[in-house]
Amino acid sequence: MRPTISEFSYGFALTSELVQAPGGVTAAPVFPSLIAEGQEGGGWDVRLDRPSVPLFLQFKLCDVMTRRTCREAREAGFNVPCFRMHLRPARKSRQHEMLLDLEQAGQEVFYCAPTFHEPEALSAAFLATSVRAQSVWIKPTDIGPLPDGLDHHVSFEPGSPWTLFSEPKRLDAKRSFDNVSAQLAKRLRARGKTDVSRESLEELAGSIERIAAKRHDISDRQRDQAKERTRPVTPLQRVAFYASMYLESQLFLVQERTPTA
């Protein structure tokens, strides 16, 4: 069955939780729309005076498979219901390849997909603040390069390792939000007291721009317009804009949660 929720609704619910999630770190979104706002930096400049880690998320939805005749059950011994997260085939999009390049360049990159597909389940998860816990967090490197231009998807049962199709290939990965949070906290500790520098963000923006050269559906004229439009803004906003325009992904800035009085 196809999902009856939208990527926007799921992304909004997950983003809300990441901002308010209890624990040692907080992940706040950096929206490209801030470029159009009057306040320089959209209020973000004040947030860059302490250690931060960029986080790139690609929101996905899942089909739910309910019949024993599905490929997951027939070819890989899955129980039903199980879930199927589609990847964009290489013949139509270089998105997976670009996200893989970004992760291999040292960035934190994840596909996020819910283990539910109906509005009632999304509402229940949102009210219980369990959207992040009821999501899978898949790195592009968990999947690896797609071998061809065929359709591929990652299938899973909640709590079990993932399997890549079209040919069944068990992926040596299973990750919860707690694992992701711990990994991000470790990266923050490794930064020590080092702030995010303008130079590192300029380098990251340039890296995304180079990776995005693989997108042949965006003309040189469009690229030049994007560069001109983002010339006056902060490097952080430029990274957010490039992530949205080229990778169709959302940039978050992860920092240690400030203790409240």
Structural description of this entry:
This protein is of the alpha+beta class and 261 residues long. It has one domain. Helices cover 36% and strands 19% of the residues. The chain contains nine helices and ten strands. It has a five-stranded mixed beta sheet, sandwiched between helices. Strand 8 (163-165) and strand 9 form a beta hairpin. Helix 7 packs parallel to helix 9. The longest helix is centred in the C-terminal third of the chain and has 15 residues, at 177-191. The protein is globular. The chain starts with 6 loop residues before the first helix and ends in a 5-residue tail after the last strand. Mean pLDDT is 88; it is low at 36-44.
Give a brief description.
This protein is α+β, with helices and mostly antiparallel strands and 261 residues long.
Query: What distance separates the N and C termini?
Result: 47 Å
Instruction: Report the major sheet.
Output: 5 strands, mixed
The number of helical runs is 9
* Average pLDDT for all residues: 88
Count of extended strands: 10
> Which residues sit in consecutive blocks of at least 5 with pLDDT less than 50?
36-44
* Helicity range: 25-40%
Shape: globular
- Tell me the series of helices and strands, N- to C-terminal: HEEEHEHEHEHEEEHHHHE
Gyration radius (Cα, Å) is: 19 Å
The SS-based structural class is alpha+beta
Strand content: 15-25%
